[in-house]
# Entry
Amino acid sequence: MTKNETTKNDTVRNGAVRNGTSKKVMNKRMGIILKSLLTRWDGLIASIFCMLWIAVSIISLVWTPYALTFTDGYNVWSAPSSSHILGTDGAGADVFSWLMAGSATELLIVCAVAVITAVCGVSGVAVSVSRNSGVRGISVVTFDALISIPIIVIALLCAAPWGASIVGVIIACSFAYSLNLMRVVRPSAITAVRSPYVTFARYKGISEFKIFWTHILPQIIPSVIINVSFASATAILAESGLTYLGVGVPSHIASWGRSLSTAANFVTIHPSVALWPGVIITVAVIMINLLGDALRESIDPLTNAELRRS
Amino acid sequence: MALIELRNVRKVFPTTQTPALDNVSVTVHEGERVAVVGQSGSGKTTLLNIALGFTSATSGAVQTADPHTTGLVFQNPITSLDPRWKVCDIVREGKSGSSYEEVREALENVSLDPDVVMDRYISDISGGQAQRVAIARALISEPKLLVADEPVSAVDVLGKQYIIDTFQHAHEERGLAMLIVLHDLGVAQKLSDTIVVMHEGKIVEHGDTQQVLTHPEHSYTKKLIEAARW
# Structure
């Protein structure tokens, strides 16, 4: 048996294979997706940024240049120097250490919002294109009604019993962005549901779950990736806003939003202190969006020729 | 034994006053090949949708095709196949648990080289090849009945010939019954024993294909034959 035949047998072997994706083929595809991602300029830059972000977050859990509780009363609002590379804030705390520690909080919020938004959003899409017209109708009306609730209201509802918390930020952002994902992705899902290949699958008696998983989900994945990356990036901005309003990250936990909101009170006197959290938030938002765009192009066989040939 | 039976079927869509089908009766028996011809809007596709159970009839008796013994081929090969699936997976969907050899054989039966097309996506093959993939998917389960909506309208002359050969071979070898909507009377002559001529939702002529095409009785059938000659 030739190598070529072996690969094809792997693709269509009874039982062990589902839709041409044996473990071996899956690994090969993952390799192609990763290679494609890293050969694009946007994917490469965004990936490097994200790796750095993860590394800094991990390091910050065990080490920061200065402890977060450290304050130097004789050295407030100081400019960047060799001892404080991004300067100090009004309490004399090291801005770099707080931003470093804040990166871990931000990473947690971004990852949690991305996962919850993707899972809840896609599940909502599945319900809203259900074959049962009653379920479909009720879900669409419910989602349309819920989408009108602003993030701040949900954050306030979460803050009422528990006070300002990271969980509240994650719930508020995930809730709002899941609904937004449903609204944006649903038309693509409806197009797939009405396609002849879904009609064929339904006629052949294939289960609705399998049809959604194998036919509809692959069609909506590109839109889902873009929406999830947008949601993750926007979650950073939302965290900043909610923290500024006092219903976001609590004051004893470092976050980029916390650093920005602290500096914002003195922005007219010492604008340079607001600059660093502002810059890091802006760069992170851009990089997450670039990563989402590059990932969408890399993961889709319709746009990735190498993946099509694999 | 009838695989599909429609008796005095009438279909009126809520948005229109005129019936899409009016007192239509069509039966497809085992091993029988029935072609439905007529111009666009004559109700051919509505008839197929009712025969398959996709749409309900407003009145009349309907015995729909059994999904387990029926193969389906849609009109547009590009939209009828999942663009994010490989050809091997698409064909395999026609028969749950089909083996690599069965998929190869199904592709060979529609004159496609499995080594060339198996691992390709639909966007990487021609419309004619895509339609043959759709036919391979429909025939891999060796159905008793094939229901096809204008299967040759979107393919070139050579592709058309491949498809006609495939259908004829399946009929001769396994007694495949067919209900096919067609525009091309030449193809209808080759692929059917019985022809149903439809006009404005009604059957205007129904009978042996050779008889109807050589000695048409209704003026509309004569007009269709005349247009086909031109």
Summary: Chain B has a mean pLDDT of 92. Chain B has nine helices and nine strands.
